[in-house]
Amino acid sequence: MRASIQGRFGDRLILVAVVALAICWLAPIFWVIGLSFKPNDVIMKTTGGLLSPPFTLKNYTDIIATSAVFGWMLNSAIVATGQTLLTLALSTLAGYGFARTDFPGKRLVFVAVLAGLAVPEQAIIVPLHTMFAEANLHNTYFGLIAPRLAVPFGVFLMTQYFRGIPAEIEEAAMLDNASRFKIFLRIVLPLSIPAQATLGIYTFLHAWNEYFWPLVSATKPEMYTLTIGLAATQTNFAQTEGIGFLMAQAVFAGLPVLILYLFFQRHIVTAVSGGFAK
């Protein structure tokens, strides 16, 4: 009885701690949403009283009427979607190759791929910028997408997931004279949807929020991604008279990622828990 009571107390204590951490994590988000509905002249006086009137929709109507945020969102959507699809294709093929095929030097190549996780982005930015400048690829969608297609984490994730799928499934298909590519396309690929959803969300979110490389590569306003565009509209906080408008842009920027996550939430939970779709 005492052990049962202690167990329930421990579970409740963990729940309270998780709720407290969730509140701390969500507080800045609610703060941004609250400021987006406040008039700018009120925000200039105080940023407190988020739940008290006055409220306004002017910040959001100004986005629709005058802001270039939709052009920046389009650029971010093209870059993030292209990067996500290509990363999924490359990481899935590489992961299946490492998990199910044997070739000379496989372990060495796999270690070399994982070593890419230890290389900081700042270490390669100068040669990367030089290569793309000489090829005249700056201020292009390809120039924004290509450097982020080599994702060691994606290869590792897909390799581990494919290794968790019973090999007997593929062996049974081989007995029916199915080719390796047919097995991969019709059997293994559908089973890997949870892992692909997880990698897709991770890649899309990283591409959507990417700041460093677009800051280097996109120098023309028409090629700005959302992060660069929003940063370009900001001035010194104390001198800014459009904080509410800026917060409304931030809410606009976060909505696509939130919708995408809610749509693939079930697959992400399945992949993280270590299972695979039946």
Automatic annotation (TrEMBL):
Q: What does the protein in this record do? A: Part of the ABC transporter complex UgpBAEC involved in sn-glycerol-3-phosphate (G3P) import. Probably responsible for the translocation of the substrate across the membrane.
The UniProt transmembrane annotation reads: 12-34, 77-96, 108-129, 141-162, 183-205, 243-264
Q: Which species does this protein come from?
A: Alsobacter ponti
Give start and end of each ABC transmembrane type-1 domain. 73-264
Keyword line: Cell inner membrane, Cell membrane, Membrane, Transmembrane, Transmembrane helix, Transport
**Broad class of the protein's primary localization:** membrane
InterPro entries per the UniProt record, alphabetical: MetI-like, MetI-like_sf
UniProt subcellular location: Cell inner membrane; Cell membrane
Subunit organization: The complex is composed of two ATP-binding proteins (UgpC), two transmembrane proteins (UgpA and UgpE) and a solute-binding protein (UgpB).
Gene name of the encoded protein: ugpE
Checking PROSITE patterns in the record gives: ABC_TM1
**Protein name per UniProt:** sn-glycerol-3-phosphate transport system permease protein UgpE
> Taxonomically, which superkingdom?
Bacteria
Its membrane topology: Multi-pass membrane protein
Similarity comment text for this entry: Belongs to the binding-protein-dependent transport system permease family.
